[in-house]
Amino acid sequence: MSPDRAPGPARTPYEIANAIGEEIRVLNHRTAVGVGAFPDPASVHDVITALHAILFHLPQALGQAAAGLAAIPSGQIRVALADDDRDTAAARQARVSEELARAAEILEVARAHVASASAFTSGLDRTAPAVEPEPLDDLVSGYHD
């Protein structure tokens, strides 16, 4: 069950987005070079696949944020720092929608590339390092024969 469907106080959209950003920051630290977060190709594949899911859902969240802003009557919005006389609340709302639509398009391109990377990593497996048998191994295997 999703935490937002569980009993208790629901988180705001800001709190959820902020938590996602924090988790991405933590992921970046945990996957830094030298940390050893990726012991095999499957672990890389799993992370890439999870990131693909994020990119799949993010355009919807951006679109819904734009729609939320557009649903607020422009007469109820004040432009605090206007660039010029034409910089109205309605103009800003339209610009936000345009910018978020462009961001969603770019995220779709990124999602497609991440999907390709996921497909490529799905066919990888780690090979066991070649190790010379220990003399004791030969003795033990001879004893069991």
Descriptive tags:
single chain; 145 residues; mainly alpha; elongated
Describe this structure in words.
This protein has 4 helices and no strands. With 145 residues, it is mainly alpha-helical. α2 (41-70) packs antiparallel against α3 (89-122). The protein starts with 12 loop residues before the first helix and ends with a helix. The mean pLDDT is 88.
Write the layout of secondary structure elements.
Elements: H1 13-30, H2 41-70, H3 89-122, H4 135-144
Q: Averaged pLDDT, please? A: 88
Q: How many β strands by DSSP?
A: 0
Terminal residue distance: 54 Å
Tertiary shape: elongated
Oligomeric state: single chain
- What is the share of helical residues? 55-70%
What is the helix/strand order? HHHH
Low-confidence regions: none
Q: Biggest sheet, open or closed, and with what strands and sense?
A: none
